[in-house]
Amino acid sequence: MKISARNQIKGKIVEVIKGATTSHVRIDIGGAVVTASITNEAVDNLKLAVGKDVNAVIKASDVMVAVD
């Protein structure tokens, strides 16, 4: 698969929590964990499960920085 997004981070799924319509997929990206909220249908279609290697593709229009 090729994709134009440059914010791709390889990781491994550590948890999949299915809700009524949306799942939270937690991905370990080398010590840090990012969470993706995607549809249950997408989880099923992609056959996502704990231990599967995936790419986290991050799309954001803004990055905010905060300090105490």
TrEMBL record:
Pfam families xref list: TOBE
InterPro entries: Mo/tungstate-bd_C_term_dom, Mop_domain, Transp-assoc_OB_typ1
GO biological process: molybdate ion transport
UniProt keywords, alphabetically: Molybdenum
UniProt-recorded name of the protein: Molybdopterin-binding protein
Domain called Mop: residue spans: 2-67
